[in-house]
Prior knowledge:
Elements: H1 2-27, E1 32-33, E2 37-44, H2 58-77, H3 84-104, E3 107-113, H4 124-147
Antiparallel strand pairs: 1-2, 2-3
Amino acid sequence: MIRNAFIFLLVVLGTFIIDQNIKILFVDGFFWDSSCISLELHYNKGVAFSMFASLGENLKWIQSVLIVGIIGYILYEGYLKEFPFPLGLIIGGAIGNLYDRFVYEGVVDYVAWHCGFDFAVFNYADVMINIGVVSILLLSYLSSKKTS
């Protein structure tokens, strides 16, 4: 269990550090544009697709409580035994986006997809959260196949 906790903490820390360093580039003015993808600074005051932006300052406190609750649930249920790496990606990304809310008053997003259709603007933390979720689903599915 100590090994898994160490993996979890390293992945959380690594995800957070990488995320924040990339975001600093865009806050400092980095910009790149192509026909399909633009790398440009956006501040998202809400969550996915700017939902709940009307909550304003309260959103960061709600998310803080949710993240602490999720970490508590992970530890209580023992999910760290099975999924230390993907859970580290999810929590590291969540903490990175939450940190933005406290420092920049909105999540720093910078990848804008507009090839064929416009998609939500997102960031590294968002990608890591999605990779973590997909990994847990895939590992759970493969684990259930082994036991049946």
